[in-house]
Request: fold
Amino acid sequence: MKYLDEYRDPELARRLFDEIARITTRSWAIMEVCGGQTHSIIRNGIDQLLPPEIELIHGPGCPVCVTPLEMIDKALEIASRPGVIFCSFGDMLRVPGSSQDLFRVKSAGGDVRIVYSPLDAVKIAQQNPAREVVFFGIGFETTAPANAMAVFQAKRLGLKNFSMLVSHVLVPPAISALMEAPTKRVQAFLAAGHVCSVMGTWQYTPLVERYKVPIIVTGFEPLDVLEGIRRAVQQLEAGRAELENGYTRAVRPEGNPAAQQMLGDVFTVGDRAWRGIGVIPQSGWRLSDAYADYDAEKRFAVEDIQTAESALCRSGEVLQGLIKPNQCPAFGKECTPRNPLGATMVSSEGACAAYYQYGRFVQFVEPELTR
Reply:
């Protein structure tokens, strides 16, 4: 398959569905790690067309969704201060904190700006030397290199008025946490292709060996996802646990060495809290000692902010694959895209947003065939 049209070929999709049905003999639970894959699955009804024995679990692969509430409150506190220009990607502005979101800070007079690259925030800092410019750096390994480059550039330019609020998380430790949880249900993983395009596949081999779980690196087109599911079921049915790269057009085993070198220079690995999940050891990045002067948490002294989640929101259980979004009593009622209780309803990659956008208000029950 060399061209994009081939990844949307209905005949090939039919063959993949038939093959998955043919080889499936028992129940399997497969988690897609990335929120982009979740939206592809729900938008195209892939989960409803698979054999009933196969359950797709929506994992914590949405960067907005796993940003902890206390980090949102830190962003709100910093953005509310006079003399601050707070820069963020647009999807973070609607994520609710304890009492408000960044849009409300902006409407109250805060200088909150949507940017399309962290380097835009560096440019704003150059243009406004008398003001503090803060960039909200969130995400998985995919967005981390660009954020690292922004801090690197700020230091190279000698900017004293630029800092970054860092909330970066790493996929492999999250897989470990899911596999070691008492509520573990996942039997195979579809790994995110864009993460692996940066970090490579070598980090996943120890996970496969330790937990005896198949991991398939997968893309985001419907046929990419189907091929990943086919490979996962094939391994599970055969009793195998191997790492497979089903996204070779974008992913190399070594990943992007230049990006990894930049990440190793600017960031250091440490424990990180995940929204709805809790602290996962060694699962996130913070700025290294060489770049500590650009840490917005320290610059604005917001390190000790404590928060509490909404009692109605069950997004943590959604992120762990314990329930589907439409099993939350607040889904589509108290919690909607216009009035979200949690980040999984806000983000364009959130599982709750996908279920709402594509009309999954009730659990799907396969209809009985009439005779």
Observations:
- The first strand starts at residue 28 and ends at 32.
- Residues 118 and 150 are 6 Å apart (CA to CA).
